[in-house]
Give the backbone structure.
Amino acid sequence: MINQYDYHCPKCNGKLSKNNQVVFTIKRDNNDEATMFLEAKPGSYKYECKPPINFTEKEIIDFHCPQCKANLKSDKYSRFVEITLKVNPKVNMEVFFSRVYGIHQTYVGIEDFEEEYGDKISKV
């Protein structure tokens, strides 16, 4: 069991974790922008936005690294964000979570091992 969650941007390797939260810059289709703080534990979907945002059900949100500004949309799963979980200096895991508001899916994997949280993951 992992007790501390140390998340990083897969593009610049910048640290995304702070105070047991994962920090992103989010952007919406209407050009609204905010800082989003997600609870770090996989399978928990609690969040806070500054400034506050009211999302619509099934709205697709773009997540960006607050350091390098890269879009973190997964190349493997287009409806998911992809970030890196560093368990220790030698063990990294890919973490995917849904970019679709209201869809609670998280996928954590390393090579042949994978663990899912929430509804069944799809590659769409």
In short: The chain is about 0% helix and 45% strand.
